[in-house]
């Protein structure tokens, strides 16, 4: 018996062309990049090619940017643009692009103006937090503190830590510490659990007095082995057996002290930071 032809297009394993994504800013572009990446991360099956264009300060620059954006257009792909440019004159030029344009200032700024009954002042300097000197200085001090107390390098002044991350090596302590310091102004120390620590379920002596500030990180043996292999391929340190043992012992220690635990294997640094801030009720410099 013959079957009628399937009207659906034949499936193909060939990936489509990557979608260009542009992050535009009058400053460093950190905000546009962070918010834009947060949005496109909701489309994990799509390939993206990212390009950041910061420090757009003049109309001439804005026109050149529009030319670059439109040059990335093809018949099959429309680039996506995330812009945090605040200057009205520059925004007007940038909005002339044929690309899909997400204005991170436009609509949101209008809403805030209506609520506050005050017009915004886009010319006010806001680079690196200069609009709030105290907040900026707090974040810089937090970064210095976190660098000094990275990976147990210094055990001085741990009483001044607002947060202490404990975990075996390569579970994500350092990037999470620095992100919390840079973005939230939190003074973070991190302490590596080594074999000697993991032979017991007692919290290591240097961090024991600060149990209420500790958050534990874990991972999966496969992921930890992969990360360690990038650093020391073929070593016992990176072996699946060693990673499995360390994580098992670490989790027993965490349970003994009822520490909050975050699995870094399936979370981004941004997600981990948000969970930590909520778990320990930290307010940071915001």
From TrEMBL:
<protein>
    <recommendedName>
        <fullName>Putative phosphoenolpyruvate synthase regulatory protein</fullName>
        <ecNumber>2.7.11.33</ecNumber>
        <ecNumber>2.7.4.28</ecNumber>
    </recommendedName>
</protein>
<dbReference type="GO" id="GO:0005524">
    <property type="term" value="F:ATP binding"/>
</dbReference>
<dbReference type="GO" id="GO:0043531">
    <property type="term" value="F:ADP binding"/>
</dbReference>
<keyword id="KW-0418">Kinase</keyword>
<keyword id="KW-0723">Serine/threonine-protein kinase</keyword>
<dbReference type="InterPro" id="IPR026530">
    <property type="entry name" value="PSRP"/>
</dbReference>
<comment type="similarity">
    <text>Belongs to the pyruvate, phosphate/water dikinase regulatory protein family. PSRP subfamily.</text>
</comment>
<dbReference type="Pfam" id="PF03618">
    <property type="entry name" value="Kinase-PPPase"/>
</dbReference>
<dbReference type="GO" id="GO:0004674">
    <property type="term" value="F:protein serine/threonine kinase activity"/>
</dbReference>
<keyword id="KW-0808">Transferase</keyword>
<keyword id="KW-0547">Nucleotide-binding</keyword>
<dbReference type="InterPro" id="IPR005177">
    <property type="entry name" value="Kinase-pyrophosphorylase"/>
</dbReference>
<feature type="binding site">
    <location>
        <begin position="167"/>
        <end position="174"/>
    </location>
    <ligand>
        <name>ADP</name>
    </ligand>
</feature>
<dbReference type="GO" id="GO:0016776">
    <property type="term" value="F:phosphotransferase activity, phosphate group as acceptor"/>
</dbReference>
<comment type="function">
    <text>Bifunctional serine/threonine kinase and phosphorylase involved in the regulation of the phosphoenolpyruvate synthase (PEPS) by catalyzing its phosphorylation/dephosphorylation.</text>
</comment>
